[in-house]
Amino acid sequence: MSMYQAAQKVLEDYFAEAHLEVTPRIVEQFDVYTRLLVETNERTNLIGPFDALRIVEELFCDSLRLLQVVSIPDGAWVLDVGSGAGFPGLPLKIVQPSILLRLVEPRRHRNAFLGLVARELALENVERLSCKIEDLPPTPHALVCSKAFLPVEHWPQVAAPFCGEQGIIGVLGSLQEWERCAPALGLGERFGMVERVDYRTHTGGKRVAVALSVLAPPATA
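The structure assignment produced for this chain is given below.
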């Protein structure tokens, strides 16, 4: 079994575990994405020391954990901040192509890679913004997500202005970081806990995916 075949098997096993619908097109798109990451990474060190198997286990599967804590309506906008090589936004788009995806990535070569992936995978309704989140107008989104853009303690506050009325902030992080930071987030006051899934990585690491809602600020006299 080749490295790519082994990686594909891991991904298909994850789909079965998470009860996500998988089609031949989805499998093919993830295979192409994996190969683009490996080939580009060899030239530019795009994502660090990741082989195909680690890409699937630590980047694809981890990104898709968000679908276990949030249901994204068809045709809804998803904002991925500090997208880098496309995580978590592009895996979400592959599995749910009906979403409208906005990727914020100011680094030029990473932004160009996002465009390459979107073209090679024939992904429609993918908008790339070469700017920092501070420069983005606070337009509403159904889901605002990120993977390692900011520490958990700071991410919800930065994401909140970009959530729509029923919008969700997606949090991905280590369980240890979440338990350390959660008490300071203002759960029940500033943010509401919608859903949470705890899981282990293939190396035994404990991680968490959390969906937060933005609660209305208290009325002032």
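Interim note for the steering committee: The longest strand covers residues 163-174. The radius of gyration is 17 Å.
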